[in-house]
Amino acid sequence: MEDVDAVDHFAALAHPTRLRVFRTLIAAGPAGVGAGRLAEQLGVSPSNLSAHLSTLSHAKLLTMRADGRARIYAVDLERVAALVDFLVADCCKGHPEVCSPIVKAMDRAC
Q1: How far is CA 30 from each of CA 7, 90, 104, rounded to the nearest angstrom?
Q2: Whole-model pTM?
Q3: Beta bridge partners of 71
Q4: Which residues pair with 73 in a beta bridge?
Q5: Which residues touch 29 (CB under 8 Å, ≥6 apart)?
């Protein structure tokens, strides 16, 4: 991943509502959540949510699929994995014990 891509990802996440959207969708996993249900869960108006989903989608953090008339959004898990790899790529420098807290945290999260 290039620095500019990581900056785009972080910029997209640098808003409280978008971060809540992202966290809700990552908790939902690959199945994703419909836009209407997501708006209800987060207490955000559909038009407001649409703008936030657009920003996250433009940063390529989300995928969207149609299910009839509904739009289902999910986190692009491969992209997020690449972002995490980008963050910790230089962590160990030949000393894997340095990265053990990160690995443990990721194991707990999954």
Answers
A1: 24, 29, 23
A2: 0.84
A3: 66
A4: 33, 64
A5: 74
CA–CA separation, 80 and 66 (whole Å): 22
Q: What is the DSSP string of 95-110?
A: -GGGGHHHHHHHHHH-
How many whole angstroms separate alpha carbon 90 and alpha carbon 104?
A: 17
Q: What is the pLDDT along the chain (110 residues), one digit of tens a residue?
A: 888 999 999 999 999 999 999 999 999 999 999 999 999 999 999 999 999 999 999 999 999 999 999 999 999 999 998 988 888 777 777 666 777 777 676 666 65
Q: At what angle do helices 3-13 and 46-58 cross, to 10 degrees?
A: 170
Please give the Cα distance from 53 to 47 (Å, whole number).
Answer: 10
Contact 25, 38 (CB under 8 A): yes
